[in-house]
Amino acid sequence: MPGVKTIESVGELEATVSSEARAAVLYTMSWCPWCTKLKPAFEEAAQTAEFADVAFRVVVLDKHTETDEQWRKPKSSVPQTHLYENGQKIREECGYMERDAFFDCLRGAFSGRGPLERAGEKEETHQCSSNGACCLNRTASGARPVCEGKFEDRRKRAILFHKNKKAFSDLEPNCVFRPTDQDRGILIGRANDEASYFDIILWNAPHEDPGRVYFNLDFMPDPVKKARFESVLFSVTFGQDSEGGKHTPLAIKDLFPTDSDDAASRPLLAPQVDEISSEQAVLDDGSSFVSSLDEDRRSDASVTATVIRGQGLHSPTAVWNITEGKTSSNRLGLDAHYSMYITLPTSSTVWMKFWAKAVLVSGDQVGLGLKHRATLQIGTAEKPYERVLDLSEVLNQT
């Protein structure tokens, strides 16, 4: 059997669609995890006698410069599977499908019937957008993807004096994190400007108050560029996750820190996320990050002269503003690490939406005493990141 062939040009695609009696075209991008996961089923189908009359083709979009419209691909997400018969498109499927669902899709399309229903299964659509964002769209309640700590990495600055960067894409929207004694925290957001970056880390202490949710904000300015973080705003809203995508607001019972004096008077010991063994690993594979907690690495929320304001008690939304300290002759920049927490009513699953923006100032690259200023955004107020904290196992042990 012929197997799968890779399309190398728009002309080759047009020739395939027009000349083959039946064709299945899979649109992918090289970085897309759901595309990679779908390929084995696509390749197996190409080797199956049942689909011997179907020409299976793959288009790797990011290896070409043509537009989506030229590739007959009207939507911007991948993977997409387009099915053709006698030159006419008869089915368009967007997102990842399990092997059996994919085979049923082929059977339904080429037999003239609609998609076959699989009893007892929840329908899910996994897909990635062209800017690097991957998502899981649930058409019924069911299992969410597990958070892995993935982030978008931007190593190059496009415009020298560009002040406001587009918000970084959420590569794991609505994923779920289940803390354990061995894995207590996860990276939930990172934004960078070249080698300078800041992280948001979510963690939970299973043997303490299960309703207490912790966050770390970590800042790593590039010393080569004489960079410093000037300020950060972090906002997070909480709700009880329930069936049907409803999120009943959860009122915050306690919040730390409320100000600089609060942070100094009761310093919080927080586990650090053990990131990647070398900076080169980040450079080579910025799209993949799996965090774990190192029990031997602990530090307090060191406070210099930074100004901290935390608010949101008795509401579902906590907001922290942190501004760099200043002396008569110098600006000190933010500390490398801040820890904070909120306490919520006990709930087995906590839904949260959050966003943050930090102002980064760097120096001598520009020359002539000028400073480069960039606003790094992890989500926005209009389009925040979303995560689910699953505490069901923790609560069962208490």
Segments where pLDDT lies below 50 for 5+ residues? Answer: 113-124, 130-142, 272-303
Q: How many distinct domains?
A: 2
Tell me the Rg in angstroms: 24 Å
Structural class: mainly beta
Instruction: Say how many strands there are.
Output: 25
- Kindly report the average pLDDT value: 77
Query: Percent helix among the residues?
Result: 10-25%
Outline the biggest β-sheet.
8 strands, mixed
User: What is the rounded distance between the termini?
Assistant: 58 Å
Strand content: 35-45%
Shape summary = elongated
**How many helices?**
6
What is this structure's SSE topology?
Elements lengths: L3 E3 L3 H10 L2 E7 L4 H14 L8 E6 L16 E2 L1 E6 L2 E7 L4 H12 L13 E6 L4 E5 L36 E3 L7 E9 L2 E8 L8 E9 L7 E14 L5 E3 L4 E3 L3 H6 L3 E6 L4 H6 L7 E9 L6 E5 L5 E7 L1 E2 L4 E3 L3 E7 L5 E14 L9 E7 L6 E6 L1 H6 L1
Parallel strand pairs: 1-3, 2-3, 9-25
Antiparallel strand pairs: 2-5, 4-7, 5-6, 7-8, 10-11, 11-12, 12-22, 13-14, 13-19, 13-23, 15-22, 16-17, 18-19, 20-21, 23-24, 23-25
Helix pairs in contact: 2-3
Can you describe what's shown?
- There is one protein chain.
- With 398 residues, this protein is mainly beta.
- It has 2 domains: 4-125, 3-Layer(aba) Sandwich (Glutaredoxin); 153-397, no CATH class.
- It contains 6 helices and 25 strands.
- Strands 9, 13, 14, 18, 19, 23, 24 and 25 form an 8-stranded mixed sheet that branches. A 5-stranded mixed sheet has the order 1-3-2-5-6, sandwiched between helices.
- A hairpin with a 4-residue loop joins β7 (124-129) and β8.
- The N and C termini lie far apart (58 Å).
